[in-house]
Amino acid sequence: MNEKIAQIEKKMLKDLEEVKDLKSLEKVRIAYLGKKSMLAELMKSIKDLSPEKKREYGPLVNALRASMQDKIAQKNDYFEDNFNALSEWIDVTAPGQRVTRGHLHPLTIVQRDIEKIFTTMGFVIADGPEIETEFFNFDAVNMPDNHPARDMQDTFWIHAEKNVRHVLRTHTSNVQVRYMQEHTPPFRMIVPGRVFRQEATDASHEHTFHQFETLVVGKSISVANFLHIAESFFSQFFHAEIKIRVRPSYFPFVEPGFEFDISCTNCEGSGCSTCQRTGWIEVGGAGMVHQNVFLAAGYEKNKYTGFAWGFGLERLAMMRYKIDDIRHFHGGDIRFATQF
Length: 340
Ligand code: PHE
Known about the structure:
Layout (H helix, E strand, L loop, with lengths): L1 H17 L3 H12 L4 H9 L4 H37 L18 H15 L3 E2 L5 E3 H4 L19 E5 L2 E5 L5 H9 L4 E10 L11 E11 L4 H16 L5 E6 L4 E10 L16 E10 L1 H6 L8 E8 H9 L12 H4 L3
Parallel strand pairs: 1-5
Antiparallel strand pairs: 2-4, 3-4, 5-6, 6-10, 7-8, 8-9, 9-10
Phenylalanine binds next to β9 and β10.
């Protein structure tokens, strides 16, 4: 009996030594501690022994079982702690699995570029609400009720409360007076943002699009300052020497008002199909801030001068990336989005 116990123990220690992973450890456990193991046989045979022998061998067999359980548990812990290192082999030279990463939308890329250029020129970035009161969207920028110019901007009206009319802002000019009410000139600021118009959509019109407002106010700001800032901005944005041309136009919040064109980025002004052979591309509206806008902001009349301009972000992105339809931006077609 003694010999048998010693034999089993020796064999198990040897088998345990050869165990290389959790799987083979389980096999050893079943072989030595399982229902049909040698140990189980041994325990069964004790039943048939005389009482003295039972007393002699019983504890020995129990001790063997306890020691085996202990050793297997130790080994089990060891594998669990060091499992990867011992049983998994990693081929560090195998090609990896490609992870699809998200990326910035072209409008975000363009917006960030523009913000970078302006902030290096000392402008601050301002923000305002997309759901706006009638006052800031229209009245404050010199467009009182019944003003015919309101018709230029097909508006989504929201009748949220009695007597207070809200709109989905039709332009980023809504931030002009909001900003002026809280700041004292001189200042230079930009407002990138989403705007809305009740439009029939086509390749160059969307109901939801983005604008970029620029507002500079001080004691002696002139059109020359506008021309310089605009030329310098567009040249940096397109990495080319861009010229600016202004044409008389009308916006209620500026006087004088103009529309401005940039020299064609495709043909550099000599005339091509992009610029319809004119050499110029229409970009946005601008002008010298109307004194009524300063009054709405609480400034003294004729104390300050300033210029404002606004243009569509989509338009710049379309020129830079040669996108032929504005509806792609929010169309949700993954084939469009993954190109940037
Ligand atoms: N807010 C005008 C528009 O949306 C653009 C503009 C801004 C014109 C500032 C002049 C000055 O049409």
